[in-house]
Predict the 3D structure of the following.
Amino acid sequence: MPPATDADGNAKLLPLPRAIAVPPGAAARSSVPAVRYDLSVSGTGEQAPDDGVPDDGPREIFERGGASWYGIQFHQRKTASGERFDMTAMTAAHKTLPFNTRVCVRSLVNGSEVLVRINDRGPYAAGRVIDLSRAAADRIGLTGLGIKQVALTVVDRDGMRCGGLPVEAGDAAAPTASNEPQQRVRAPAPARRKAVVPPRRRK
């Protein structure tokens, strides 16, 4: 069909058709799986998706929502449990789970998982369900995005899997007194001796 022309023989623009870009029945242009980005949801009872990793069976998702992280600005400060926050440890903050609860955090963006231990309280922003340490956030690629949608599974028995590996009894255990970083104790400075200056002789 030849292009439309005006009275002078020049081609003129036609308005775009009022139709959808993809005709009905056509294949989708993208095969990226959909991700649910709604606010936090608890007690849904939904099952973790099958990613091909052998597991001990379907895991019930305890909670879904946004995950954030905290790092150097809180390093070595006391957490709500009384521990010193270590940004290199696999720990996290949660509003209600008991301290020392082990949680498998699964990214709903890339499917990666990390096992953390709850030792702090928070986060208190709307839509966020967990606050990860810097090291745990790095493990699932969270630090580059700031906030990422995750699913939480409580690891309440040995043999469950997280990140493709079976969870053992000592995984994400609380630090003991022997491996906690010891603070340096400064020795008292020795007392200074007063120098005795003899009186000046008069000439």
About this structure: Residues 41-47+56-158 form a domain with the Barwin-like endoglucanases fold (CATH 2.40.40.10). Strands lie at 41-42, 63-70, 91-93, 102-107, 113-120, 128-133, 148-155, 161-162, 165-166.
